[in-house]
Amino acid sequence: MTLPGRPSRPPSRPRRTPALAAAALAAALGACQSDRAATGSIYPMDYRARHPIVLADGDRNLDVFVTGTGHLDPRQAADIDAFLLEYRRYGRGGLLVDLPRGVAPGLGAGVERTASAIRRLGAENGVPARAITVAGYAVADPGLASPIRLSFRRMEARVADKCGLWPQDLGERSPAANFRNEPAWNLGCSTQATFAAQVADPVDLVRGRPEGRIDTVRRVKDIGQLRDGKDPSTAWRQDGKTSVKGAVE
Fold this sequence. Notes:
This protein is of the alpha+beta class. Among the domains are: 54-157, CATH 3.30.1330.60; 160-198, no CATH class. It has helices spanning 18-34, 47-50, 74-90, 108-124, 175-180, 189-198, 216-227; strands at residues 53-64, 92-101, 132-138, 148-159, 235-236, 242-244, 247-248. The strands form 2 sheets. A 4-stranded mixed sheet has the order 1-4-2-3. It has a 3-stranded antiparallel sheet with strand order 5-6-7, with no helix packed on it. It is flat. The protein starts with 17 loop residues before the first helix and ends with a strand.
């Protein structure tokens, strides 16, 4: 009860303790933490980062077409020689020879003679008989040419992902995507794939080769010319012939 003529006093507020203030501050910071937006990875701009070249084991194949007589023409013999040379240098595991089964009448003997010629060429190229595995595959259409398939495993360079993927439209997409001016995802993939296919030894992409043997005769000659005050370099003429110290070779 208040006396007349005296103003009423406002009700007293409870004091906040330091513990309550700390709890309120922590709750506010937690709310800010929950409102934070998560961002993704940055889009790679370099085509070498989008389509890296990796080293992996792959199959090397050669189809040797069979004739009625089982004779290897010079073209196929040269192809087999090159294929066997590659196998000796880079092959892993054995050499698989797949013979067609169920061929047209009259080609069965030619298949066997061609396979014998391939084994003979393998022996001549230093491929032992124990490294050759002979298998067979069923022919789907006897009317078509059914080759003998040679295959082996070797390490090769290839692009890590698949070319020809277009996850975004090249035309009008969205204002945000258009103003970013980013390259298309598939840009540069075919260039990387072509470069990887042209590398003869994939290890060259990982490390350089050691130095070869020096040409001692050439080095001694060049050092002697330098000591005499002469130029040991070679002058090249426009017609393609070399001129060494005024003498035309």
